Each structure stands twice: as structure tokens, then as C-alpha cells.
Amino acid sequence: THHGNAMLTSDLTKRVEDGEIKPLALIKISSYMISVVGNVKVCIIMAMDLVEQLNEKVGEPVSWNAPKETSTTPAKGTHSSSLSPETSGPVSRTAPPAFPSTPRHAPFTGRTTPIEALNPYSNKWTIRARVVRKEELRHVSTRMGEVSVFSMDLCDESGEIRATCWREAADRINSLVEEGKVYMISRGMLKMANKKYSTLNSTYEMALGNDAMVQLCADEPKSMPSVRYSFVPIASIADKPTNSVVDVIGVATEISPVTTVNTKSGRELAKRTAKVSDDSGTAIEVTVWGARAEAFPS
Asked: CB 3.0-4.6 Å disulfide test: which of 25, 153, 180, 205 passes with 133?
């Protein structure tokens, strides 16, 4: 038997936090992928079942990172190499440059990675995801001058994630993607999600720079969701903590005309309100901003 490092998806982590899966549990892993961080293998578990709760470990497990006992003399006709069969490249602890200046255009090949399996320890991935929400392209002032930026929310069968595009990549990708369509996306950078700006149920968020690859998916899977909802009754919203994110479904009983407000930066912003009611017997006011306010049916 062996032991090693593993990571769980957010859904599986909740099962551990809730006490359903405890230390020494015997599990059956039905979906996983292997990443290599330096010389360490990390098993990313995407699906598993509890078989039995044990009270002691099985056998005397050794690390699966332990070197195998092999001859130090190379076989005839072979050459020594620093390449790892897991990574097909030299191992390095040095992070790649954030955003190379010139994008490299290459066709997508190989298998796609589920969004739920993305993690900062592996950058060799391609996801196939639907753009469920796309924000407007905007310009922000930084110490390096004014830069373009926009964000989009992506989802597939496994999960959801927010992607933010910066500088020249924002201009390029904004002209490529359309809300509702499915794309192959690769060469993004992952970091911990800032819940102050993202309402998605995702541990990480994605940054897309000049090196990012975005390509329209010609064979859109029928199983690809168009949006992910978790509806709650409007009557229960009062019991939620401040700044909670909720999904509701109801009937718009009142819709106001579009008005404009001035932001702190002096920019005019469109605003529209609507009163929404559901079968819990409660109504709530919803505010819509920007281009969505102007496009909202009256």
C-alpha cells in the first residue's frame, strides 16, 4: 500500500467538513487526475464513494513519491534525462512569466479538464465551458496608465469559475466571445477567488493574459449547462447573512423606467428597479445596472 498528497473538489471537501468522511475511511475513487508539483505527485480527486469507516490503517503504506530501486547504470543505447514522464518536461519550481507579450496560436488537442478539477498547481489544461455572463469592457486607471479589463462567468458540467481579461487580451477576447456560447480556453493563470468581487461557487478564479487561448467550440455538448441555479424562496432571504448570494425565480409585478445616477468618478450609470414576487407570498425589489438595465424588458 502507498500514501501520498491529494486535493478534493469543493463538493467533496464539504463531505469531509460535515463529518461524512473521516480519517482512516476506506474510499473508492471513481474520477481523478494527477498533477506534479516539483517532484511531488498530487492526486486531485473529483468523485469518490465511502466504502467503509476503518479504525486502523491498512498495511504499512510507503510514499508513492519514494524513488524506485533501479540500477544506476543506464541500459545500452539509452541516455539519461531530467524529463519526468508525468510532466514531459524538466521539473522547475520557477513560476512562468505572468503574461508573455506575444500570444502563441496553436490548435487545441487532447482531453479537456473539468472546471472543478482546476488548481494553481497545474497549468497544463484546457477547459470547455459556456460563457453564462459577460461584463462590459471597461477601462481602469493604474500606475502603468489606463488599461482595458472585463470579466466573464464560465460553467461546465462540473462547476463554474470567473475569468478576468486584462490589457490587450481584454480587447482581443472581448471581441471573440459571446454570452451563451461554448469555448475552449487554455493558458490562463489561477489564484484564490476574491469573494468580495465574485459570487460564484468556486475556490479559484482565472486571469487571462496575452498568452491565453480562446476558441469557439464547434461541437457544443448537449449536456453543457447554460447556467447554474440554486433557487431559494424569497421569504427565506431575510434569514440570510448580509451580502449572501441567492438565486430566486418569480414574477416581475412592477418595473420602473430607466434612470441614471452619477458615480463617484463622475460617470453616468443606467439603473432600473423591479419588484419580484414568488409563491412564498413575499416580494423583493431588484436593481439592475448598466447596459442590462437598458436591455431589461419593461
From this structure: 153
CB atoms within 10 A of CB 205: 22
pLDDT of residue 17: 80
Contacts of 110 (CB under 8 A, 6+ apart): 126
Predicted TM-score of the model (pTM): 0.55
Please report which residue ranges of the chain form alpha helices under DSSP H: 10-17, 167-176, 290-295
**Which parts of the chain have pLDDT scores under 70?**
10, 35-39, 67-110, 221-223
CA nearest neighbour of 98 among 212, 215, 214: 212
> Distance (Å, rounded) from C-alpha 29 to C-alpha 47?
6
DSSP state of 295: H
H or E element in which residue 113 lies: none
pLDDT reported for residue 236? 93
Residue from 233, 232, 231 nearest 279 by CA: 233
Instruction: Measure the CA–CA gap between 179 and 159, rounded to whole angstroms.
Output: 17
Residue at 155: amino acid letter:
C
pLDDT on residue 112 = 87
Residue type, 149: V
Q: Which three cell numbers stand for residue 211?
A: 498568452
pLDDT of residue 251: 94
Q: How many residues does the chain have?
A: 298
Q: Cα–Cα distances in Å, from 76 out to 68, 73, 79, 82, 208?
A: 20, 9, 9, 18, 46
pLDDT, position 296: 87
Selection from 209, 14, 218, 232 nearest residue 116 by Cα: 14
